[in-house]
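Example (one chain per record):
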Amino acid sequence: MSNSAAAAVLTTADLSEAIRAVRTLLDIADTDPAEVDFEAVIRSQEVLGRVRHALPKLVWWASAGEEQGSSEAGDDPAGCLPIQVFDWCRPLDRAEPFIAALGPDPGAVRWDLYAWPAVPEAGLEAISQKYAYLTLTVNSRDLYQEEPSQDHTIYMHVPNPPGDRIDRIDRIHWLADQVGGRFAGRVEVARL
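Predicted structure:
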């Protein structure tokens, strides 16, 4: 498994603002083809119902461990709450319904893009599919829902470490500028 450096480019308490910023960044990215991955910690039956509506073939397991229940075993997730959701390779149009379904529960959506295109006027070269990712964390201060929060953060991924090439840092700053954000140096290692 490889890693990327996920640089926080925008943190906001306004989920609508975060979604608008993601849409702006997706308009910049090359999304043909692209897919989206989901992670969440679901604690209530109400949220579970909404998430299952958004993702009918939900992949999950009990937070207490797979031996306590999982989608693979055919268990009922409502009887296993809280559960961990790890659902991968879905169409882009599933992202916003999933985000809306989360309510107060923490989650993350990662867009696996085709590329970040070159921006010649900013001196930026294209970034290939291998490192063209964008993540929105919802109700969490980190990529893995370990630090619940009322904030939502957008992360832009670059090869790890980000400081080995100046154009990677420049791209982070440039993308942050496009959505009214600011890169303040907060970077997490992301498993890809």
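Caption: The beta strands are 3-12, 35-42, 60-62, 83-90, 107-112, 133-140, 148-159, 187-191.
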